[in-house]
């Protein structure tokens, strides 16, 4: 924690403003949370085969037929809780998952820690 | 932590009356003439009192335990270094008498009828004995196992002994589920008659035989565990400790460190894919689903303990993780989560922003502590339009520079380079402008070291905002906000620091308070935290509510500071591992602190409730516990975001769950009026009362202005226990706060109820 510092604005001096190019939302992004979008962009850049875990939501209770569709492109579906599910796969598999019509939303599985 | 044995001795000398000279004392003297006090205490306690007065102010040291075949009274030094004597206490109001003992810093133990065992400070013998609630007090002449302080603090000891209940409750036929660092399945406290109480272990770090329906990890059966064919280990020790609190049976301590539900069965998920790597949300969901599925197949109710959490997410119950956990709960399916240990950390900031650019906007300083690989802030708001950027200052406070702002709908990534020096890589993503789950706006700000190229701790970072709207932001990892404040610099704070999944809509969330300050160590002597925590006060680390959507959190609190429980045999002790100062003599138990430790007190207690009624769901458990908590000078009388609705009281909860508090036909000793259940309610609630003598009874409901709203009882009643249903159906009674008043004989009691339509 910063206990006490005095902020000094360089009045009359040079303050550097760092600029970057902003980009628009990727097409598949509306179905993914921010962390998942960033993760997929990063893996895509490296063409990584890393397996990522996600939690997803469908627009209705997931049937066996829907589950079969979800697993067609190397997506491993683990738990199904009505219209919610956990799954894993590489970034291509997760993008495929997001592209399915009945998938509403997918979030990256975040890591949590023990509270000790 | 610091070794303070010498300090403790000094404290004992200063604060305790002297009994011993030359290091030991055997009290074998005679009793003086009878007084009123003598009618309430045994002669041996009278003698102790006479020696107290005689030796007062003398400087002596007091050994931990006095022994000797001829000793009439044995004095001990308790975990807090105070001289205590163990006694039997007779009372016609055990619960009040127990509270009295606890208020003097004592402990309570086994209850048999109207007598209970206790350990009381020698200096308090007279004060306690003279209270009306105490009929008689007798010194214990033999050593007996006493329960550790946290169990009596939340009245689980009363439930386990069946005090004023139709039976004892120890978690029989209920599953305790855990997702944690692992369990020492060979610890004696998880066995009964030589058989493991653990039905299954799913080791997510293992491989080769995942559970049916899953693609990862290794599952072990009870038979494999009994045959010592289980390879799962808890090298961190956290999971074993947590499991011991909720469900250890105290075998290795002859009962001293018995958990809350010692007869429950256990299903354990070792939830880290590798030791120390943390718990993925999806894995936690899988683990919970696995436990509930197993329990359902066995026809048993289950409560799952999640002593884990983090700060990423909307903190409003709408993330898919929170939704998944909530959706898994149901009748006989309860999840309990720790509130989090950020109560003393400035991981949150939030304010109504303004201005139109960096200079006219606002900012909060942010330090990346310990050269992390990345630090991240997650910002949420529901209305307005907020632009967000990052600035950096030298450690002397001089502004180095700032990024261009990122407006809603945009994202940005850049190297934070000024004058040829790069301080880190900044990524700001504000593309989530209409979150699909809650409709809110999110901005995720990440500063990383670009694979180790930069040291993030070389500067002070700052999160700046301008525009319109009020936001909440949480540091999710690698840092903390600053408390520095000036005209446009807003300090960080510890508000809304409840972690996820404690923020879920249908997960019980538990904070921590202190029940112990001192403990004996295997290294010899006693240890305590510095500064010494205040007994009964909130633990300094316990996270604070509310949630971002304004729900009171934690729901309630339980003991969580300096808790003794099972030590995993796989934990490495000593300089290369766990500091053995934390380990208790005998090396079967250790002390740990955290809301992680409070959480299993609640989970174990809920197992006792589920033993009574295996169809209880989240709302049932939530209402039972939160409307029957203990309130004291620390909690205050109204619910808040530090203690929630108060301190867990297992006996109050279960006795209100049972339709008849006492055995049918058992005449009550006292008048009593219970809190209505459920409360708040719509359209009906139940009110219970007891009368020890026959007579006219009035039970009426009044509005907040004192106007009579309903007459529930107005007739002669025989001695007994009664319950009345109060329904608003068909009545013109609006939502709000009302009072109900019982009048019988000279007794009168008023309680509050809330109608929520």
Rg of chain B (C-alpha, Å) = 28 Å
End-to-end distance of chain B: 52 Å
Which class do the helix and strand fractions of chain A yield? Answer: alpha+beta
Q: What's the CATH topology label of the largest domain in chain B?
A: Rossmann fold
Q: What are the segments of chain B in which pLDDT stays under 50 over at least 5 consecutive residues?
A: 1-33, 53-72, 141-147, 660-666
* Spans of at least 5 consecutive residues with low confidence of chain A: 10-14, 21-26
Largest sheet of chain A: 4 strands, antiparallel
**Average pLDDT across residues of chain A?**
84
Q: Identify the CATH architecture of chain A.
A: 2-Layer Sandwich
Proportion of strand residues of chain B: 25-35%
Account of the protein in words:
The complex is a heterodimer of chains A (116) and B (757). By secondary structure, chain A is an alpha+beta fold. Chain A has a single domain (27-108), classed as Alpha-Beta Plaits (2-Layer Sandwich), CATH 3.30.70. In chain A, 25% of the residues lie in helices and 28% in strands. Chain A has helices at residues 34-46, 64-70, 91-99; strands at residues 16-18, 52-58, 76-81, 84-89, 103-108, 111-114. In chain A, strands 3-4-2-5 form a four-stranded antiparallel β-sheet. In chain A, strand 3 (76-81) and strand 4 (84-89) form a beta hairpin. Chain A is globular. Chain B is of the alpha+beta class and 757 residues long. Chain B folds into four domains: 2-146, 2-Layer Sandwich (Alpha-Beta Plaits), CATH 3.30.70.80; 174-342 and 503-621, Rossmann fold, CATH 3.40.50.200; 348-481, Jelly Rolls; 659-755, Immunoglobulin-like. Chain B contains 13 helices and 40 strands. In chain B, the strands form nine sheets. Chain B has an eight-stranded mixed β-sheet, with helices on both faces. Chain B has a six-stranded antiparallel β-sheet with strand order 17-26-19-24-23-22, with no helix packed on it. At the A-B interface, strand 1, helix 1, strand 2, strand 3 and strand 4 of A face strand 13, helix 9, strand 15, helix 10 and strand 21 of B. Strand 6 of chain A pairs antiparallel with strand 15 (308-309) of chain B.
